[in-house]
Amino acid sequence: MNFYVPEGYVPKIDLRETQIAIKIIKDFFQRELTRQLHLTRVSAPLFVTPESGLNDNLNGVERPVAFDLKEGNRSAEIVHSLAKWKRYALKQYGFLPGEGLYTDMNAIRRDEDTDNIHSIYVDQWDWEKVIRKEERTRKTLEDAVRAVYKTLKITEDYMAYEYEYIGHVLPDQIVFVTAQELEDRYPALTPREREYKAAREYGAIFIEQIGKKLASGKPHDGRAPDYDDWELNGDIIVYYPVLDIALELSSMGIRVDEDSLRHQLAEAGCEERAELAFQKALLNGELPYTIGGGIGQSRICMFFLRKAHIGEIQASIWPADVMEAAGKAGIPLL
User: Among its keywords, does the record have Glycoprotein (predicted)?
Assistant: First the structure.
């Protein structure tokens, strides 16, 4: 059973007050995020067609939830994320360099192993901005990371004022470290153990260059080869004292250009994806250069409200033994 109850944990606010607090966080955070990154909200799809190439294939093994359509004898897939769709949408909406969009992304990940921080239901703010080719640099990436982290800090300050029990966990600054630097520092540890060590030491870290093979011959973590540039991406991870874990709050990166897409498709052994509609458009220079990311809505609400299980924030399906254990521990799962 993947369920952990921290010693002495008792929810500080009840179900009804939690629902009120969730809305406060979401309203405040997205307003601040749009201000920091200059974004405009747009509507987004819940499902796409397989042949469009728009679905995110994550680590390449997760199965999308698929269904057939009555009209047209076609199939559709529930999105895993909107990483590729956002880039297409920027072109369709006519966004210019320095302008961007964000949207509410809802997904079903049927192969997810559920635990205190993972659910088969995923809700994110997905954002994307147009940049110029010459802005595809580490500085551009790290400036965007600082803007997102500033939004997290300001939100924590606001929520700590609204709810005194929350207090402050986030440090003033986020620390940047590459996946290779972590492997060099902790060669005997697993990637997750390295994340914990670094997050515990610094409080908040951005691990860069996720997806590429490290000196050990293995990547720090999996990344689809056709959206992030593996040299210019990463995860925002914070130390979460309630569960004593490293908690990922956001994944982001500068997106692939024509050269990095070809290289990464070859590296991943899936060069046939170059024939899909989205990938073809990118290789033909028909899509803008962009930077973007996803920020977990339930994750940040769980973090800011100091909850022990993501099921205290979102309604999903949990194993029967987890529901029983949570009930005995006085933790209401939605």
Answer: no
Distance CA 221, CA 232 (A): 14
* 296 three-class SS: strand
Residues 6+ apart with CB under 8 A from 195: 182, 205, 207, 237, 246
Closest CA to 206 of 238, 181, 228: 238
Three-state DSSP class for residue 293: strand
Neighbouring C-beta atoms of residue 110, cutoff 10 Å: 11
In this prediction, what percent of the chain has a pLDDT beyond 70?
98
3-class DSSP state of 1: coil
Q: What is the pLDDT of residues 231-242, one digit of tens each?
A: 999 999 999 999
Q: What is the pLDDT of residue 1?
A: 57
Identify the pLDDT of residue 58: 60
Give the Cα separation of 259 and 289 in Å (integer): 12
What span, in angstroms and rounded, lies between the C-alpha atoms of 196 and 15? 30
Strand-pair category, 228-240 with 204-208: antiparallel
Q: Where are the alpha helices (DSSP H) in the chain?
A: 15-37, 83-93, 138-162, 179-185, 191-202, 258-268, 277-283, 297-304, 320-328
**CA separation for the pair 167, 67 (Å, rounded):** 45
Q: Which residues carry out catalysis?
A: 56, 109, 124, 235, 248, 251
- pTM of the complete model: 0.90
CA–CA gap between residue 162 and residue 20 (Å, rounded)? 12
Phi, psi of 210 (to 5 degrees): -100, 130
State the average pLDDT over residues 286-299: 94
3-state secondary structure of 73: coil
Q: What is the pLDDT of residues 35-90, one digit of tens each?
A: 999 999 999 888 888 777 777 666 556 788 888 887 777 888 888 778 788 888 99
Pairing of strands 75-78, 100-108: unpaired
